[in-house]
UniProtKB/TrEMBL annotation, chain A:
Keywords: ATP-binding, Cell membrane, Lipoprotein, Membrane, Nucleotide-binding, Transport. It is found in: Cell membrane. This is Lipoprotein-releasing system ATP-binding protein LolD. GO terms for molecular function: ATP binding; ATP hydrolysis activity. It comes from Pediococcus pentosaceus. Residues 7-252 form the ABC transporter domain. It is a peripheral membrane protein. Gene3D superfamilies: P-loop containing nucleotide triphosphate hydrolases (3.40.50.300). One of its GO terms (cellular component) is plasma membrane. Pfam families: ABC_tran (PF00005). Its main location: membrane.
Length: 252, 303
């Protein structure tokens, strides 16, 4: 049975310095359909347009041409804040994903309200603690013991694990992972990748993940995209991906 | 004794300035120069309203609204006009000078013989200088309590997150521009009320009474942090008020030491500069054992 299309990009183009002599097109007529439960890994060298593609989807980069559809609705002109109702994101830099002076539990509580109106009701942190304890326990590196620690005192790995939990605690329609393990040591990085895989599968999330680790790109996910010079040059499904040699991908 | 009572009273009235500034300087994490304009604005509005026969309570509320309006203008220049916050604040502060002169009609207006918040039988029955202690205590308690509750709401948490990590706040759907505008409005409203209270306590409003105000506000915040060290958010609000009172005692000592009131701005800046350099000085000269706590952000575990 065909899975429904969650996200669709139609002829999306982004320019820098448009209408000047220094005009550069950083996304060139991107056409992409992301289906429900897709876990797409995205490869490409620096400057290929991967991050721009994420920014365009998340809404902090306006598009110059084309359309972005989520569940069939045109969201091309929707603000970044409004899009957080259904899109969540984990950044590469552990500092970007968490509020350093707020505790782990406070950060998680903020994330449970992603995309909804912030009202004058009391936050009721204590009532959430048991639930937070439980979900942080699913993460490596003993995050669950540090619920009351300000996140500024956590290690990079703990912060990224927390950022990932914050992005998924309220189930998003689309999860964007922007090299979320790149800043971590190999062991921590592998643990977070495993946790990511588990969570995406169990919660049946639809996710896109940028990575520079060819092995991760091949191991994880059910679909692989390769970008080059602002274009998607390869789009491999699970079967093709499984039969692809890492060396063949090196051409990107 | 009178001088000590008076210092405590003044510290409480000025504490409102410190707490207001805390919202922008510590929570939103930027320096808001608007306060140098909104403090005298609050004084000008309330004194003019009182001399025109309005009830002092309503006059003080008008000051709050005027301060909020000035804060909103700074906020809009900053968030929508994309003017850097320091400059946006300076623009509104400068504009306020003209506005204040327009409101008062002259550079100094006296409240001699008028009803103020400090008038009334109850305050007259108190010993000397206790009026500002009682009124200051009532107002600061109400304000700190409301703020403490507010910061524990979902909106308050979004407000804190905005200052702590704006990019994260945005990615969680928090409208950070709205949070900044709200913070600037409430902060400047409170600072205008502080101006209104000081004017009523002193018995006049002067167009120049805003000069150096930001340093006084910052001094309350920093002294509170240096003296009390690592605290929770609610405790930090109270620490600011205590810092404000301690600062008044410092001024009292300075005056006792033979300096005159013209030297106060110089002294204030020196005190503040010293407090701000404390973390660096401590590292350099190993002050740690002498001064247990510092300006650093809270690092302990907390609820």
């Amino acid at each position: 049975m065909e899975r429904p299309v969650i996200l669709e990009l139609k002829n999306v183009s982004v320019y820098v310095n448009r209408h000047t002599t220094e005009e550069i097109q950083i996304l060139k007529n991107i056409n992409l359909k992301v289906y429900k439960n897709d876990f797409i890994t995205l490869l490409g060298s620096n400057g290929a347009g991967k991050s721009t593609l994420f920014n365009v989807i998340a809404g902090n980069q306006p598009i110059d041409e084309g359309q972005i559809l989520v569940n069939g609705h045109d969201i091309s002109n929707m603000s970044e804040e409004k899009r957080t109702k259904f899109i969540s994101r984990v950044f590469q830099d552990p500092k970007l994903g968490t509020a350093p002076r707020m505790t782990v539990a406070e950060n998680l509580l903020l994330a449970t309200k992603r995309g909804s109106r912030r009202n004058l009701k009391l936050r009721r942190l204590k009532q959430h603690l048991a639930e937070f304890k439980q979900i942080t326990a699913t993460m490596p590196n003993r995050l669950s013991e540090r619920l009351k620690t300000p996140t500024g005192n956590l290690s990079g790995g703990q912060r990224q694990a927390l950022s990932f939990l914050m992005a998924t605690i309220k189930k998003p329609a689309i999860l964007l992972l922007d090299e979320h393990t790149a800043a971590l040591d190999p062991k921590t990085s592998a643990e977070l990748m495993e946790a990511t895989q588990t969570r995406v599968t169990e919660d049946e999330l639809t996710a896109l993940m940028i990575t520079h680790q060819l092995s991760d790109a091949v191991t994880y996910g059910n679909r692989l995209l390769v970008m080059k010079d602002g274009r998607i040059t390869q789009d491999l499904d699970a079967v093709t991906k499984a039969n692809t040699n890492i060396d063949e991908l090196m051409i990107y | 004794m009178n001088l000590i009572t008076s210092s405590i009273g003044q510290g409480l009235l000025w504490g409102l300035l410190g707490v207001g500034l805390f919202l922008t300087f510590r929570i939103l994490d930027f320096p808001d120069m608007t306060v140098e304009g909104t403090f005298p604005l609050g004084a000008a509005v309330s004194v003019t309203a009182i001399t025109n026969g309005l009830n002092p309570l309503i006059a003080t509320l008008l000051a709050f609204l005027a301060g909020m309006l000035a804060g909103l203008i700074t906020g809009l220049l900053y968030t929508k006009g994309r003017i850097p916050i320091l400059l946006a604040g300076i623009l509104v502060m400068t504009a306020c000078y003209s506005i204040n002169l327009r409101i008062m009609g002259t550079s100094n207006v006296s409240l001699l013989g008028k009803q103020t918040l400090f008038s009334g039988q109850f305050f007259a029955s108190l010993p000397k200088f206790f009026d500002s202690v009682v009124l200051g205590l009532i107002i600061i308690t109400i304000v700190v309590a409301i703020l403490a509750i507010f910061l524990q709401t979902n909106l308050g948490q979004a407000f804190i997150a905005t200052g702590d990590n704006e990019k994260m706040a945005k990615s969680l759907g928090i409208n950070t521009d709205q949070m900044k505008n709200m913070g600037l409005m409430v902060s400047n409203g409170m600072i205008a009320v502080s101006g209104a209270l000081i004017a009523q306590s002193d018995g006049y409003a002067d167009v120049n009474m805003g000069i150096g105000i930001i340093v006084i506000g910052l001094a309350s915040i920093i002294i509170g942090e240096v003296v009390f060290g690592e605290l929770t958010m609610n405790q930090r609000l109270v620490a600011v008020v205590c810092g404000s009172i301690i600062y008044r005692f410092v001024l009292l000592l300075v005056l006792k030491a033979g300096f005159n009131t013209n030297d106060l701005n110089l002294i204030s800046s020196l005190v503040l500069a010293l407090c701000l350099m404390l973390p660096t000085l401590r590292k350099k000269f190993h002050f740690d054992r002498i001064l247990k706590h510092g300006v650093a952000m809270p690092t302990k575990e907390r609820d």
